[in-house]
Design brief:
Chain lengths: ~120, ~110
Amino acid sequence: GAVVSQHPSWVICKSGTSVKIECRSLDFQATTMFWYRQFPKQSLMLMATSNEGSKATYEQGVEKDKFLINHASLTLSTLTVTSAHPEDSSFYICSARSSGRASNTGELFFGEGSRLTVL
Amino acid sequence: QKEVEQNSGPLSVPEGAIASLNCTYSDRGSQSFFWYRQYSGKSPELIMFIYSNGDKEDGRFTAQLNKASQYVSLLIRDSQPSDSATYLCAVRVSGAGSYQLTFGKGTKLSVIP
């Protein structure tokens, strides 16, 4: 399957600082990437849909000014958590859909995830 | 609101047995259905997808879909301890060009040696 790389895999930061997480599709072009957040023992919750060259679409309840998403190229999307607080501590996972695939099943490929801990 | 429901478990089965994981969904217009496996602290990995009524087999895994009952299941034959993980059911929301997935909370499977 296709490979999606996420970096960093884990990060610890102080409250009030900003953290950037990168999501790269390594062997395919991704016109659309999705950012999920997962709290312990909970399911993946979609935060936003990132489209290359346009503004991200945020899910209800997700602050766009706090979670900045940039999808400047077909292989890279970034999520910046601004002014992070302890309640932002979570497992953030990106996923991507290959623009080159003919399949219409909607198969997504996931990054390895980034565990954020805000002290 | 589109919902995907799973029994959180844990589901414990002995090694070599068949594990049966179930999932129901609320959006009757849902088109594609996915089963992901997630080990603790890791991101989900796709096991199978299905979009037609009936059974789809891949190795030890069989996905079953019944759109009339809005029900999808995953059977794991000859369960192995390495199958112990949380299994997430995901449904592709309906809508032209939509590739968003709605996930269930997952069922934790424990295969006892």
